[in-house]
């Protein structure tokens, strides 16, 4: 009998781990509601506000693999609690920040510690649960993560209404305290490595610099029209990552074990996470704009519609054990990639009068991809990768999730602007409307606030303000369609790669 079969505290340990992981996912979305209030209180610019979100993607890309490897080497329980102590300090620092730069700094610390909490936390589950119950434990763990993502904006709104924006950070503390006491005294110590493993410092340096420069270059390029600095950063990032592959094939104990990708199911998990990165970055970025600009829906309605994505994610996570009785892990992961492709294709045909049923179908498919990449990907890794390497493997596939999301969001934004500009130029040329460059930029900014746009347009020296505004909405929709054609193509390529990874034996 497995030693964990009669482990008396496993469910307390699971709930504690879930609460701690829940806080890091809650913190990812809860701040979105607070952005306007932070901007007003700390006198922040729009670009500075964007960094409250961008810093999360960048830091997590840089440190997820490192966090997983550190847990494998120095003990997962020890590293996990270091992460949550750091997260607590960062939450207090963010809540008491007196300017936007200090707040961005502590958000970066939260991202770093959050990457530890999630990556290492999930590797602690096999220590408490026997193989027969690990899928159920992973499902519950993933469902808590999805709940944190979905409840974030709503809870943020409640806290800001009752108190102020600082409470979106203070709220972390009770979850951390309860989670700590439920798991600290119930988790078994993590197994020690069989032999002394040295840190691959060259790999660490190349990974952090490579991913950091690449992701920062992409984010900076979007904000600064792809100037020389952004291109240089991207080139440096790519060179460092190429050197990383070379170095990791030479060292005895590599930080990034490329042998992982000889495992077909682990590779498929990585591809599914890439598809989920497209959903959680590209789709979630463009869809609220579509709902607001094209359908003219309220913030509450937009939030309610997007809530369907995370609700499905939670349901899929909780149903994973039952789904695995009907389908193999391979099939569920392939279905996840296919769901992204179908959802992207449906988005191509969105217009101002699209039926809410069609929209919800696209949202449900997004939720399935998100849920199965999370819970199914973890299950695939724990079932096929050696227990001593699961931290590194999970860190790797979820790094690909964040990295692919950042890259494809940047590329989709470029394609969106190309489509928008081409359509807008055609409309203006056809109707003999000539705008100055300054007027063009002003109108584009007005689209972020359509409720006030027409009133402001009437005070600018622009002919036919209503016509011009309608042209910009049509141009947005065409750019939106271009972006989703691109996502459809990428998803189909990912699906074809996934179909080629069918294992010889059903898994």
Helix content: over 70%
State the domain count: 3
Describe the biggest sheet?
none
Uncertain stretches: none
Mean pLDDT: 80
CATH superfamily of the largest domain: MFS general substrate transporter like domains
Structural Rg: 23 Å
What would the principal axes of the Cα set say about the shape? globular
Question: Might you state the CATH topology name of the largest domain?
Answer: Growth Hormone, Chain: A
- CATH class of the largest domain reads Mainly Alpha
Briefly note the structural class of the backbone.
mainly alpha
Describe the structure in brief.
It is built from 19 helices and no strands. It has helices spanning 10-42, 46-74, 76-95, 100-123, 125-128, 131-162, 167-170, 172-183, 201-223, 228-248, 264-294, 299-318, 320-326, 329-347, 356-384, 390-430, 437-446, 450-457, 465-499. The mean pLDDT is 80.
Q: Explain this structure to me?
A:
The protein folds into three domains: 8-196, MFS general substrate transporter like domains (Growth Hormone, Chain: A); 200-254; 256-436 and 452-507, Growth Hormone, Chain: A (Up-down Bundle), CATH 1.20.1250.20. The protein is built from 19 helices and no strands. It has helices spanning 10-42, 46-74, 76-95, 100-123, 125-128, 131-162, 167-170, 172-183, 201-223, 228-248, 264-294, 299-318, 320-326, 329-347, 356-384, 390-430, 437-446, 450-457, 465-499. Helix 3 packs antiparallel against helix 4 (100-123), helix 11 (264-294) runs antiparallel to helix 15 (356-384) and helix 16 (390-430) packs antiparallel against helix 19 (465-499). The longest helix is centred in the last third of the chain and has 41 residues, at 390-430. It is globular and about 75 Å long.
């Amino acid at each position: 009998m497995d030693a964990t079969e009669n482990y008396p505290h496993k469910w307390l340990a699971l709930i504690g781990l879930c609460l701690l992981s829940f806080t890091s996912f809650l913190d990812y979305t809860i701040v979105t509601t607070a952005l306007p209030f932070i901007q007003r209180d700390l006198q922040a610019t729009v670009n500075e506000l964007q960094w409250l979100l961008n810093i999360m993607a960048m830091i997590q890309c840089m440190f997820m693999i490192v966090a997983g490897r550190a847990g494998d080497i120095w003990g997962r329980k020890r590293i996990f609690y270091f992460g949550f102590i750091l997260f607590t300090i960062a939450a207090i620092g963010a809540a008491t920040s007196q300017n936007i730069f200090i707040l961005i700094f502590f958000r970066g610390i939260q991202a770093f510690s959050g990457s530890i909490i999630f990556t290492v936390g999930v590797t602690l589950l096999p220590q408490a649960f026997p193989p027969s119950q690990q899928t159920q434990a992973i499902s519950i763990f993933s469902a808590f993560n999805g709940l944190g993502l979905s409840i974030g904006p709503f809870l943020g709104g409640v806290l800001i209404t009752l108190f102020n924006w600082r409470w979106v950070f203070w709220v972390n503390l009770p979850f951390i305290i309860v989670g700590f006491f439920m798991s600290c005294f119930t988790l078994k110590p993590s197994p020690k490595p069989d032999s002394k493993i040295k840190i691959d410092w060259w790999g660490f340096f190349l990974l952090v610099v490579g991913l950091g420069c690449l992701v920062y270059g992409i984010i900076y390029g979007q904000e600064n029209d792809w100037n020389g600095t952004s291109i240089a950063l991207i080139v440096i990032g790519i060179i460092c990552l190429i050197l990383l592959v070379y170095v990791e094939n030479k060292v005895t104990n590599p930080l990034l074990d490329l042998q992982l990708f000889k495992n077909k199911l682990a590779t498929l998990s990585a591809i599914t996470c890439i598809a989920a990165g497209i959903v959680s970055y590209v789709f979630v970025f463009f869809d609220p704009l579509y709902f607001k600009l094209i359908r003219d829906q309220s913030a509450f309605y937009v939030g309610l519609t997007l809530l369907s994505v995370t609700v499905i994610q939670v349901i899929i996570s909780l149903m994973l054990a039952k789904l695995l009785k009907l389908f193999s892990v391979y099939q569920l992961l392939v279905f996840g990639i296919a769901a992204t492709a179908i959802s992207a294709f449906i988005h191509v045909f969105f217009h101002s009068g699209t039926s809410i049923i069609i929209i919800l179908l696209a949202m449900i498919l997004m939720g399935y991809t998100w849920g199965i990449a999370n819970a199914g990907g973890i299950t695939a890794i724990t079932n096929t990768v050696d227990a001593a390497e699961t931290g590194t493997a999970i860190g790797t596939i979820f790094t690909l999730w964040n990295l692919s999301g950042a890259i494809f969001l940047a590329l989709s934004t470029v394609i969106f602007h190309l489509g928008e500009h081409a359509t807008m130029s055609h409309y203006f040329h056809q109707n003999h409307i000539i705008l100055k460059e300054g007027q063009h930029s002003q109108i584009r900014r007005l689209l972020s606030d359509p409720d006030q746009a027409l009133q402001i347009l009437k005070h600018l020296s622009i002919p036919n303000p209503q016509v011009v505004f309608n042209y910009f909405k049509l141009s947005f929709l065409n750019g939106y369609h271009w972006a989703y054609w691109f996502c459809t193509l990428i998803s189909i390529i990912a699906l074809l790669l996934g179909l080629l990874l069918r294992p010889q034996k059903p898994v």
